[in-house]
Amino acid sequence: MANNLDKNPELYFNSASIKWLKQKLSNLTIKEFKGNTKLNDAKPGKTEYLDAKRLNGNAPLFIDKPINTLKSDILILWDGSKAGSVYYGFEGSLGSTLKAIRLNPKLVNSFFVYQQLKSKQDVIFNKYRTPNIPHVIKNFTKIYPIYFPSMAVQNKIARFLGNLDTLIEIQQKSIKDYKVIKKYLLQKLFI
């Protein structure tokens, strides 16, 4: 969100006097862990299995492992061709290619930080991954800077961005529905 390492963002949400702090992601974290759930060791159950396929839109798969990831955790794909991809809003048992970051809710709004990380996806891909076999560098959370204002402002920004995400989802669903209608009409029109 910051336009330069030592400057406040260009967009201020009603106040140019709001100061943004800068901290390393690890300083805002209360828990960080790499997933270790292996699908081969699991049986059918009630806990959602979280892997890259699921986070990228595949249908949920439920297994007998304990929940170790909360909806407020930020998930990062740690290994593979899309290493560095950031996800939010999932609860379940974390697969081995992912890492979960649980933030301190007294310091930062996790959805606010997720939006910031998501907005810098290209930076993460280009600057914080290994060049050969893609994976996020080990000390990512210890060196990656997060910029944040007061909790009240974070909450306002998070709510605003969440509302935009909801509108985008609604529009995407409408587009999908219109494509189905168009396909149906074309099939009936050109027999």
TrEMBL record:
Residues 36-175 form the Type I restriction modification DNA specificity domain. GO terms for biological process: DNA restriction-modification system. Keywords: DNA-binding, Endonuclease, Hydrolase, Nuclease, Restriction system. It comes from the Bacteria. PANTHER family: TYPE I RESTRICTION ENZYME MJAVIII SPECIFICITY SUBUNIT (PTHR30408:SF12), TYPE-1 RESTRICTION ENZYME ECOKI SPECIFICITY PROTEIN (PTHR30408). This is Restriction endonuclease subunit S. Gene3D superfamilies: Bipartite methylase S protein (1.10.287.1120), DNA methylase specificity domains (3.90.220.20). It comes from Limosilactobacillus agrestis. InterPro entries: Restrct_endonuc_typeI_TRD, Restrct_endonuc_typeI_TRD_sf, Type-I_RS_S_subunit. It holds the Pfam family Methylase_S. Transmembrane segments: none annotated. One of its GO terms (molecular function) is endonuclease activity. Coiled coil: none annotated. Belongs to the type-I restriction system S methylase family. Signal peptide: none annotated.
